[in-house]
Amino acid sequence: MLPPEQKDLSLTMIGKLAALIEWLAPQHREVAELIERGDTKHALDRLHKIISEWHAIAAAYANLAKMLRISLAELPVNDLNGDMVLNEFCRHLEEIQTALKAQDFVLLGDILQYEFDAAITNWMSLLEATLGVVEPVSA
What we know:
Layout: H1 4-37, H2 40-68, E1 76-77, E2 80-81, H3 82-101, H4 105-134
Antiparallel strand pairs: 1-2
Helix pairs in contact: 1-2, 1-4, 3-4
């Protein structure tokens, strides 16, 4: 059982992370649409901001997991575990980086439009699983 201050901080952090992810969710598609329309400069500027936000989310979540002493390998998240969710997300970021280096904007648009929905769903499930650690359901 968590001390009340730690529980309150954890609940606040989970709520803020969830709100930030929900705010970011449609922006991936918007950037993909900008790329599709040929507005690459504007799209890349927005993408840079989005990726910065994702890095902040990942860092904040890592600190939360550390504070809660969560073993991500043992945290069930649907058919995955916490480590698998984060590794898959890192793979998406690497794919974005590869597409950017190759200046393959078609691939970049496809990643943003089609692959990020699953990543966002997994992140929300990860937060839900973490919430279950903070506030276990009474039997």
